[in-house]
Specification:
The protein has 20 helices and 2 strands. It has helices at about 1-10, 15-25, 30-50, 95-100, 120-125, 135-155, 170-195, 200-225, 225-240, 245-265, 270-300, 310-345, 365-375, 380-405, 410-445, 445-500, 505-510, 515-555, 555-560, 565-570; strands at about 300, 305. α2 packs antiparallel against α3 (about 30-50) and α15 (about 410-445) packs across α18 (about 515-555). It is globular.
Amino acid sequence: VILRILQRIFHSNNHLKLHKRLNSIFIPPQSPSRKNKFDQEINVMSQNYAKYPQAPPYAEHSYPPPQSYPPPDAYPPPQAYPPPDSNPPPTNVYAATIEGHGSAPKHDIPGAPEDYAGKKEERFVPTGKFQDFWAFILFYIHLAGFIAEAAILLPEMRLQDVVDINVDISRHAAAVAIGGAVSFVATIAYIFLLKAFTLTIVKLSFWLSIILFAGLAVMCVVLGSYFSAVILFAVAVIFLLTFKAFRRRMALVALLIRTVVEVANKFTGTYITSIVALICSLVHAAVFILVLIAGWLKWYDQTTGTIDGIAYVAWIYALFSFYWTQQVLKNVTHVTLGGVFAAFYFLSPSANGGSSTAAAPGMPKFPTLGAFKRSMTTSFGSVAFGSLVIALVQLVRAIINQIMYQADGPLVFLACCISCFLGCIEGLIEFFNEYAFAQVAIYGKPYCRAAKDTWRLFKLRGIDVIVTENLTGSLIFVASFFIGGLGALGAFVGGLALGLEFFDLSNTAAATGEGYWVIIVLLLALLVGAVIFGVAAGVIDSGVSTTFVCLAEEPEALYRTKPEVYEAIKQAFPSIVVPVNRGYA
């Protein structure tokens, strides 16, 4: 057995010498029959190797296959994109197809996997039809139902029946506004610093995230929440143990983030899209809360303390509509932003401008508008389908949590375990959907096809995806925490200037509720600061994930349009420029 293994390792006649050496060591002289048997095996193997002087028969299946990827001096592949002296593709074919963020020009893929061999055109050239049209229709039908529910309940509600404010909150609102202004200025400053010192900020954010998790764990210990402390401390330890893997890819992530920031600063429509999506999300959340309150006032019986059965149905429907609509708003924004960054990847010669060529015809005039148009038309069904999956998980988890709060005994423990499991599933689906919707944004695929290709991407680039996501997430987490903290500090200083008594713990302050309001001011300022930075964070996150998918699928397109960026990425992490659609079985 050992000799058979060595035979497959060495692939040469050198193992015959080793065979004789092992024979002389382990075969005693007084066993001539056994020694003759080994000599016969040597002769047979020598004859076999004479037939294959270069390699044994199984070498034709060796890895990597010679044709899987051309050597650097033969890059880009001649068949991937036509050379400059040949007939170039139609000008702006990418933009003309989908108005801002469509598929790359059609080309052949050397070494394409067998299961995709007959689907090259389908994979890289969109059909222009509405994808997952059933989800498109179903979403608008459900939204009409929620609007009808709100139209029935809201006119019967009086705000004075819900809120009774005896405190003048004008100064508190002014303090929160001051904190928001500080956070806005801090966000702009952070974006410029991120562009100038990307790698330094990525490294610093990684270490600060470890410190923050450890600090939160200590705070949980002080508050008596030992389980949360163990979880947070474990996260900090995992980050620390994986530093070596993270450090090797920090240069790549920093390059991706810097490119994304440059593109977003040039095409400010990305920030406007994120702001509009945030406003729509807040308005929808406010309407949902008012509908819940109106339903409670209408159907709650104060004498018996019960709610009619129809109220439960209306509550579940409103909750489902809330989850689905919020997910659709989030993912439409992601697909729109991803379309802009995909257009830049395939069309623009550089982020700082440059002359258009046949290989890089340049960005369309309104890339964000074209991307938004597609995300709301041909790709909206895919967005609604993927959003529906996670909305159903969120709805089931919310029902389980409600059961957990109302039950007692063993049922509480069972409901808690189910809720924890569903929370993990929800997080995994959200992580998966981020890259699946990047496929939708780039190629206009239906959701199931995008999910299949994303799973293939995860199998071949799983570590790179996880590291990229974690480094980007740690950067966003740390920045949100500190910018929110600066907002709270600004609200504190502004409140002192406006005459708020933050440290007044007298009976008068407690009786009027003043002491509680000043605490709410600081918490609101912290939240507003994090939300303001979330606008920029959403753009960065969508840009990094979309650019990563583009780079993993078609690095030759980056070589064609922006060779200097391609060379920088190749120097930082060479294996990332090998397309995932080559050599896959």
